Amino acid sequence: MTASQRLRDDIHKRIEKLHADQLQELLTFLISLEKDTTHIEKVLSFAGIFKDLDDEVFDDLTINLHENRMAYF
Description:
The chain is mainly alpha-helical. The protein has helices at residues 3-17, 20-44, 55-62, 65-70. The chain has one domain (3-70).
């Protein structure tokens, strides 16, 4: 049995021992964990989007960042 499976079994046993009124609180918590994971996946979906960006454009976005920002204020 893997460590992950042992953890799942332990969690399952503990859930079985919870009172009914605690189950809704647990469900709410689990849903919040799922939302956090979805957010991370969305952020990571942008990884590598600048890999084909022209060097001059990339330099303008990074090296000249502060000057570009000040131009709008």
